[in-house]
Specification:
Layout lengths: L8 H25 L9 E9 L2 E3 L4 E4 L3 E9 L3 E5 L4 E5 L5 E7 L3 E7 L5 E7 L1
Parallel strand pairs: 1-4, 3-9
Antiparallel strand pairs: 1-2, 4-7, 5-6, 5-8, 8-9
């Protein structure tokens, strides 16, 4: 005679725990990847370091509202040129010397911020 499968309470607790962990992970990923919005007319300051062809903080997207003033400070261990595509803003990078670049994000779209000689993407600027 076959025995009926019984639902064990500990199995239900385990399933519930897995569901809670999955939801918490999804919420954490959402907040970690959504970018930090900056209100229009505000300032957004970004400090980037390039060492041994490694960008810190790691390359990602920066989202701002149209009209935000972007203030970049980039320090590199090698000579290069900083370039903001779409805005055609440039700054010379001298080893160990912070380069500063400021502009108003008045055009909407997706723009790469990179170094010309090394071809490193520092981040992607999203202006909405």
């Amino acid at each position: 005679m076959p025995t009926a499968t019984k639902s064990r309470p500990d199995t239900m607790v385990r399933l519930l725990a897995v569901a809670v962990i999955a939801i918490a992970a999804a919420v954490a990923v959402f907040y970690a990847t959504r970018g930090e919005d900056t209100p229009a007319g505000g300032d957004r300051e970004l400090t980037i370091t390039i060492s041994n062809r490694t960008v810190s903080p790691p390359t990602g997207r920066v989202e701002v509202a149209r009209g935000t003033t972007i203030k970049l400070t980039v320090t590199s261990d090698a000579p290069d040129e900083l370039h903001v595509h779409g805005y055609d803003r440039k700054a010379a990078l001298e080893p160990g010397k912070p380069a500063k670049l400021e502009f108003k994000a008045d055009a909407t779209g997706l723009f790469e911020v990179e170094t010309h000689d090394a071809g490193l993407v520092l981040f992607q600027l999203v202006v909405r």
